[in-house]
């Protein structure tokens, strides 16, 4: 379409898509390590926190509804700060996108094709990435929307292991007090990371009055999927068993068997690549969007090509390992926390104070 | 080189201006001059008839000129020649020619005369007249109306378009007798000038889309348009896509129903296919029969078609991926039977699959080009004899033959020929990806397909609607065909100006009004 707008539904699924990615696969284990079987409460608490910050983001964006956060920063702090913010956001999205892209490839290698080199996966997945991201935000929105509806059955597949559920695993609720639950919010929150793309999506949204509703719905869908998979994993494995597996969310599917197909986890994980792509693609899109804004160009396909080539070269020259990726992810978590939680709150305080001060001067 | 090109260009342009000055010339009032001029324009044209006569009404010399193969000689004899030769003009009114024919035009330019003769009209030059008379008597050789052999139907109208534009427009008019049905005429082509007519409902079709189509057709610069497929290639959004973005049909009822939905139909002279646009992906999965049968049955068949679409694209790739990468996915018993069947086959699965798929495609092409009687023989020899013999000789496995056969049937179920060809083509890259990367390759392949699918446009409207810009209301007529009365709105993808098309307040059986 010529208008370059996204509908509310595309907005919801874009945000939800960025949130749910590879993190989901390891989340049950990470939660179980820290909070035991009470981890599911953490998910709900994190959801509350995330939704609150999401609403703050929308409040901030309402001040300058026609531009992205970059325009807003430029408006309040001037041209140079705006440029700096653009570079920072570009770096942040590029790093996050790259990290998840590589993680995706590592998981594919581990679970589906152990004998293929990592850079080949990067090359293979770069092709569809290029084809989708080179278009505008509308196409990306359509993609996220479509992928959500064609992958929703995966959640239903997770209901099957419930036949073997042991509900006693959850009891007693809050067995070790609230401290581990609250402290493990830090882990869970990173599964919700991604709502900060609302900073960039807001100006493209067709019906802006529903932005708050949309972002809460997106968070809720994310929360429900995380909650469901975590609960299924908790009910199926015993509390100690969970921590043995690296990705319990995949392992659990192994028990599903039909007369015509076994080892369903290979098929489902192959299909899960779609879900991961809805995380990676928007991140890469916003990275190249920022850089093309910096140069002042409309067309971002060259930057995209450059990004993908760079990424490929990095993987080719410094083959990533699981350990290094985990360390990078820990580091990235801190950065994400700053971008997704600290930054919105700070700028919100500034923007609202700015309004109050201005009014004060006028009086 | 550049100089040469420039020189050539100059030459070309000078040639054109020459032509123009020649054809822009007016005719002379001397009859013999005009006849000589005509003879020089149409040299080496044995079917040109020049008949010298003396008009009885005015006693002036005249010449009647036409091309014999494309004019209606009966009409010329009865309504032009005999009145001119035999009837007297009692009122002695010179300005009026007594000819019992509806379509008469007076022209002075040679170009118009040339076009008229080539269009099967006949021209009358009268001595001492500086105008020529053109009588509408065209009668191109044409076939009678008959059912379209490619798009056969059970319950639709048994009539297809022919090669005549007037008949084709008439067939559509017969379905939609409404004054809002407007026709825009454009001439395309340098040499074989062909008329292209755009048909649409003025109060329904989106003016922007219409404008877009019109400009695209006007921009076409080509020698001649032999087939509407050629025009399609000039005006479609993305020529590099395997998927057709404009629908070609031979069925007037289908074209009419698309017009009623707010789409625009382009009729091309001399081609039995009309072009429908803007289309969406699901348009290619519909037939007129869907609307002629009960909705539950129609929905079932339609779902079957989408199922067939996925099978035709993915099944061979899936087979290759499972056999060469992920055999642990198959349960042990099934694996045994596959293993037994593949025991004697010396080739790796992908080679086996490619051999069989190529054979099948060749068979299909051979079957289409051959006369119907031999075509059947090819089918039997190719399908049954080769299939059976290949398995017995141990060249391919039984399972592979099953896979290929199912794939073939699945691709035949798609009603639109171009779409099913596209699917056949897409299958091969999928097989290559599966050969290299197994399931991951297939998923990447599907992702590329989706990427292509959601960024495609047809006349500037999204091709993947109502699936990828998700429009729940439009989904009523995509996978499941809801009862016709319940689909109250025209599809949003047509961007129709008027949306209402039906009202669901139909009387219920027992209720008494």
From TrEMBL, chain A:
Compartments reported by the entry: Membrane
Bilayer-crossing regions: 7-27, 39-58, 87-112, 118-134, 146-165, 177-201, 213-237, 269-292, 304-322, 334-357
One GO-annotated biological process of the protein: spore germination
A Pfam family that the UniProt record links to this protein: Spore_permease
CC annotations in GO: membrane
Membrane topology annotation: Multi-pass membrane protein
Keywords carried by this UniProt record: Germination, Membrane, Transmembrane, Transmembrane helix, Transport
Major subcellular location class: membrane
Record-linked PANTHER family: SPORE GERMINATION PROTEIN A2
Protein family per UniProt: Belongs to the amino acid-polyamine-organocation (APC) superfamily. Spore germination protein (SGP) (TC 2.A.3.9) family.
Designated name of the protein: Spore gernimation protein
Source species of the chain: Sutcliffiella cohnii
Automatic annotation (TrEMBL), chain B:
Chief subcellular location: membrane
Membrane topology designation: Multi-pass membrane protein
Family: Belongs to the GerABKA family.
Keywords from the UniProt entry: Membrane, Transmembrane, Transmembrane helix
Name of the protein in its database record: Spore germination protein
GO BP, one annotated term: spore germination
One Pfam family recorded for the sequence: GerA
Cellular component GO terms, alphabetical: plasma membrane
Compartments where found: Cell membrane; Membrane
Superkingdom of the source species: Bacteria
Transmembrane region(s): 303-327, 395-414, 426-454
